[in-house]
Amino acid sequence: MKYIAEINVMPQREILDPQGKAVKLGLHNLGIDQVQEVRIGKHITLELDAENEQLAKEKVELACKKLLANLIMENYEYVILPKN
Question: pTM for the complete prediction?
Answer without folding.
Answer: 0.88
